[in-house]
Every structure is written in structure tokens, then in C-alpha cells.
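DATA SHEET
Item: assembly model
Revision: 1
Owner: S.N.
Input lines:
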Amino acid sequence: MKITKINHIGIAVTSIDEALKIYTDVLGLKVQSMEVVPEQKVRTAIIPVGESKIELLESTDPEGTIAKFIEKQGEGIHHMALEVDDVQAALGVLTGKGMALIDQKPRKGVENTQIAFLHPKGTRRVLLELVES
Amino acid sequence: MKITKINHIGIAVTSIDEALKIYTDVLGLKVQSMEVVPEQKVRTAIIPVGESKIELLESTDPEGTIAKFIEKQGEGIHHMALEVDDVQAALGVLTGKGMALIDQKPRKGVENTQIAFLHPKGTRRVLLELVES
């Protein structure tokens, strides 16, 4: 398993429109795209920063993961996504090393990526996502 | 103010030695350096990932910022650091835009960088650091 870069940092927000004022108006970054991911019950704004991205995440459903996260601990950094060349293979390696997974197999992420989340109980409470572009 | 990349992601841990098992043994990343930053009351491990780094932060003092963070909400992602060419100039721009700052002027970070933290009350609870390499 080879990790090549930080693909993105996911940030949970109650309102993408409000959050964008910080990232664009104040910090001067640009939005690359906006996308709704029904499977994840989120609306996202993708903001490139060097080779990485900031991914703002707004829940589209009060029962969604992001809504629950904000309800529990407020807005803030939600996860870190690491890019790998092959998510399926990486999950095999991690399982072999005894890591707990949220996703046993890759699923579809934004921008046609394949993604999988590791369980934070094995990563000292850091929610890690693997991304294959 | 031009943000060029994510300089690093800071992760608060109770034990760098324990956390490194995840990042090196499991994920296959390599430690570039370890450093104590007395001004910040932390011991750090720097782990390069592409053009960015993961910075593990272990408190050297029960009264330090990282110790307080962990006491309040447990281990996890602590901050996101964005690289700029001139921290001093960036702070001037941000102040002009009404942003609250933790550091009114740049101070010394790891690896001889100049850094400054913005106040999370202005960034929807994301602790943002600016770094000039």
C-alpha cells in the first residue's frame, strides 16, 4: 500500500454558503466544483489547495453522518483523506494488519473516486478515508 | 495573500510512540524528524505525505494546549496548517478583513518556520494555522 498525498481534508459545516465566505472571500481560495453525493447524504464544495483539496461537507439529511457529527461535537474538521493507488488492495493489507474498517469494500466518492473509511477506533480517533482517483 | 498548499495536518495524541505504530507500521509512512518545541509545549513527529505532512503532537506539559485539547475532546485532528509566502503580510490582510487572531504576529514553529494561528471563532471552529517555510 502506497500513500501518495493528502487527497483532501473534510470539514463538516452547517452551511456551505456561510463557510465559503471564509475560504473564498477571506482566504482567497477558489471553489472547483459543488456536488451532491446522495449515498453519503452530503452536499460538498471542493476547494483545491496545492495538490490537495478542502472538502466542505453539508448534510442533506438530519439523519446523515455529517448532521450527526455536528449534533455531537459541532462544526469542524471531520476527516483526513489519503490517496492510494488501489483502495481495494489497501483494504486487504489493512485487514491483514488487524485494522477495523467502516467500509469493507470501496464505494463511490465525489468526482468519480473510489473511497473507503477506516474505523476511528483503530486510528486513535482520527477518521481516515482512503481515496483512489 | 496566497495560499500555496496544505503545509500539514496537526494531530493531537497522548503518545507519539503509540500513534506512530498506525502511521508507520500500518500505513507505511516514514518519520522525517522528531522535535520538541518548548514554546508550544509539544513534542512532534513530522511525517511527509506528498507535498504535505502529518504532524503528530504530544504534550510535554499537562497545562499545554495539546494536553487541554485532549482533556476536553480526546485525541484527534487538532488543526490544519496552510502555507503562505508571508505570514506577517497575511495577518495584516486577515485583520483588515475582520478576522480574529490567536497570534497577532508570527512566532517560531517546527523546522524553522514562521507560524500564526487564527482564532477558531472566525473559522467555524476549524483551527487554522498559517505557515511560512
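QC remark: Chain A touches chain B through 39 residues (CB under 8 Å).
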